[in-house]
Amino acid sequence: MYLRVLMMGFAVLYGALGLxxxxxxxxxxxxxxxKPHIAALLPLQSKVFGRFGEAVKRGIEAGAAADGERxxxxxxxxxxxxxxxxxxxxxxxxxxxxxxxxxxGPLRRTAVQALATSNAVSVPTLALSVPESDVLLPDGLYAFxxxxxxxxxxxxxxxxxxxxxxxxxxxxxxxxxxxxxxAFADEFARSGRLVIDQxxxxxxxxxxxxxxxxxxxxxxxxxxxALDGPKVxxxxxxxxxxxxxxxxxxxxxAEGTVLGQLDLSGIVFVxxxxxxxxxxxxxxxxxxxxxxxFTSFDQERFYALGIDAWRLSQLMLESGYSSLGMLDGVSxxxxxxxxxxxxxxxxxxQFTQSGVRPxxxxxxx
Length: 365
Known about the structure:
This protein is α/β, with parallel strands linked by helices.
């Protein structure tokens, strides 16, 4: 009874935007009468990913609200999922049976992988991440998300436009850092540039001095950090700031705004316009969340992801995937790519001693 009252409260809260929340606890007999709608499949019941699912939901709400009321627009039903992949697939099936004509989600890479291999996809579905492996997306399933490997390739092209020819990579010991560093190296080498060496992150001062000496002796003209901001701040003073340095959005975190950007000053990176270009026309269209709602930059990014997911859903419903042009989104320039995966071009920016400044086009092309 309590759950039913709670769901009714959510329905009142989101009613003005056409959003409702559906939970795992509903039985078949309690499902809403079949009606055409957009289903947002989000991990709101996950202890780890719930806050990111909530950020995406708020972004979808913001996108829908900015569009205004339209009699021909499908309402959105939010289907809350957890960490169980079989239950997530069951929820997807339930959304289809309830009349979903388009699905936004799932959000996690493991969930996208599970859906891609499930044979469950039967309506256009905009996944908010890419699969964990190179599995081919089935008909009707499209992938859009924050793909750090794509950012690394974009940064490599920026470094090339700056005339850099011999780079060294500093990477962490986790899978994501290794994927990011490899993506940079592959793209940098594509046009005849060289990645001279790759060094593992270390806080040992003697090892850092050896890395610095190695960089100097190899005539390196660029450093790529496949690291987050705290790690880069920890080692950069030992490597020096003379050499041009590059990174992905991993380096840009809330901690940096608190501690200052002195150790990051001069580093070129890419991030969403939402994070680095407040005067961007698309960014100005949508409201920021009240202070305290989000506690990390990652939540802000997922909020922006939700806004653009809503915008893409409307465009895809109107004209389909193959007919889409480029969308100037709050998460970047978005365009249909091969294998049903959207390509995203983020906004180039640079750390200064006082903060972050967006780069003008002539500074990176």
